[in-house]
Amino acid sequence: MKRILALFVISSLSLPLLQGCATAVVGGAATGASVIHDRRSAGTILDDKTITVKIMNELLNNPELREHSSMSATSYNQVVLLTGQA
């Protein structure tokens, strides 16, 4: 009985420490599900994400564009769509 009580107490005290793990597991599952349901290959998805990050970095590193415009970049099948306003 003491062993069960000790296990219950330890489990109860460690639950708050697992909050970050749930986010990682759910996020990983969502990413895996999006890759499964996407018609693009995993390599193309990675290329699209890389292209988007590079473009957004260039836009954000340009002080004039950053201060006087609102722009976003989206890449799909290595074709880029720029949206926003200046």
UniProtKB/TrEMBL annotation:
UniProtKB keywords: Signal
Protein name: Uncharacterized protein
Domain of life, source organism: Bacteria
Keyword Signal: yes
Signal peptide residues on this chain, from the entry's feature table: 1-24
Organism of provenance: Sedimenticola selenatireducens
